[in-house]
Amino acid sequence: MLDRTKAFTVVRAASRLQVLAARRRAQREAEEAADGETQPLVEEAENGVVDPQRAAAIAEAESRRAAFGQCRSMTMRRPPVPPAWWKSDLQALKEILSNWMNVLLVAVPLGLAAGYLKWDAAWVFSLNFLALIPLALVLGDVTEDLALRYGSVIGGLINATFGNIVEIILSVAALLNGLYGVVAASLLGSILSNLLLVLGCSFFFGGLYNKTQRFNATGNQASGSLLFLAALGFLIPTGAGLLFGGGADHNPQEVVLGISRGTAVILLICYACYLGFQLYTHTDLFEDEPNEEGEAQEPMMTLFTSVAMLTAITVVVAMASEFLTSSLEEFSKSSGLGEAFLGTIILPIAGNACEHMTAVIVATKNKMDLSMGVAIGSSIQVALFAVPFAVVVGWATGHPFTLSFDPFSAMALMLSVAQTNFVTAGATSHWLLGVQLIALYVLISLAYFFK
After folding, report:
1. 20 to 30 A from 436, CA-CA: which of 181, 208, 284, 315?
2. Which of 449, 439, 10, 24 shows the shortest CA–CA distance to 204?
3. 214: left (phi over 0), alpha (psi -120 to 50) or beta
4. What's the rounded Cα separation, in Å, for the pair 376 and 388?
5. Among candidates 406, 413, 54, 361, which has minimal Cα distance to 201?
6. E strand or H helix that includes residue 428
7. d(CA 342, CA 185)
8. Shortest CA distance to 264 belongs to which of 294, 230, 311?
9. Digit-coded pLDDT (tens) for 391-416
10. 438 burial level (CB within 10 Å; 0-12, 13-18, 19+)
11. CATH topology of domain 2-28+80-449
12. What is the dihedral of CA 35, 38, 43, 49, to 10 degrees?
């Protein structure tokens, strides 16, 4: 989570500096206006105007200015007059929306209208899918801006909560619609996308700009072992569903459901331990390096605007996700694309757009630790939090969602985790390693396409 925070800070450093510069210009203008309030009185006195009614005012103004000049030290400054909050927030919003992909925001009202007016499933699915991509980008920027206000620990918790909110909302919406296969496919696809596509593109484009790049071996080892633990957590219920036979007193589905719920609780505990390790007990291992541009660490927007935007975007994402998942079955039939391919390959593109762009940008700047933290950290969040959370939500709402994936999906996850650990074992990267990860992702996508 701290790596995600630092990565977003690197990407948005220039934008934050522009917003802060505009804010300081407004403060200086306000100070100059305040200094000029008594200037007309002084000019009248210099021009020889003798007005008995203004003599006292002139004397009092000069007295205040003289006293202030005597008492003011070299380090004292007049308290700045803050500019109107809405001007600063408008400038920040302009910088956040400056990304060219935000032109897709036009699909947000169209997608919601398509869902409410019951348009054809192809239009409902396509428009809401396109709407989720810019919403994920803006949500990432707003979340990061809010996290900067509260320091590393609370900021990391905010990022942990909202970092994969799009995937969580998508999975819950599909779960409540009874699309258990889509839930499993979308969450599994998010893990595969981050591990193979996002990390592979980071290695590839980072290697084009830098011949060889290095990253922290200790952090990579800890992340790799957590991912392998999560993969085993998915493999055990899957193996139980295949190998455990039913009897007079045992229903295999009930056995797998019990194993899945127990496994989900254990994985959530492991995720809480992971948060405690990174954000509390061993924060020194994840501290930011000294930043030459310390002003870039300040939030761009006011607290009210950040919370309001975060709430509004989350509500819109929930609505778009509901329309998207409700139209998926009909769209699958009309387009000929399988639900497994749509859930595992297509849907994660919308949820991972923010991580993908951030990881690639910081990789080209030779900050591979941050890029690895975004790509693998997001995979850990989905594997140890989003997937078990979906099981717990299903448990609470009466939907029997389990961790028993189909054998091919379980195999694909284990192979992806193993390949990622092989590629990152040397704590160095170059563009050829990126090609290998992207190639494996294409192979898995090809298999799901014909599945």
Report:
1. 181
2. 439
3. beta
4. 18
5. 361
6. strand 428-429
7. 8
8. 230
9. 999 999 999 999 888 889 889 999 99
10. middle
11. A middle domain of Talin 1 (1.20.1420)
12. 180
Residues pairing with 428 in the sheet = 214
Per-residue model confidence as pLDDT tens digits over 142-167: 877 777 777 655 665 676 567 677 77
Identify the burial level of 338 via C-beta atoms within 10 angstroms of its C-beta, where 0-12 means exposed, 13-18 middle and 19 or more buried: middle
Give the amino acid at 444.
I
CA distance 180 to 148: 37
- Encode 145-181: b = buried (16+ Cβ within 10 Å), e = exposed: bbbbeeebeebbebbbebbbbbbbbbbbbbbbbebbb
Phi, psi of 214 (to 5 degrees): -120, 155
Within 10 A of 316 (CB to CB), how many other CB atoms are there? 19
What's the pTM?
0.73
Say what the pLDDT of residue 413 is: 92
Helix (H, G, I), strand (E, B) or coil at 390: helix
CA nearest neighbour of 199 among 427, 375, 444, 413:
375
> Are residues 174 and 394 in contact, defined by beta-carbon separation less than 8 angstroms?
no
pLDDT of residue 67: 58
Give the pair of three-digit tokens for residue 130: 């396109």
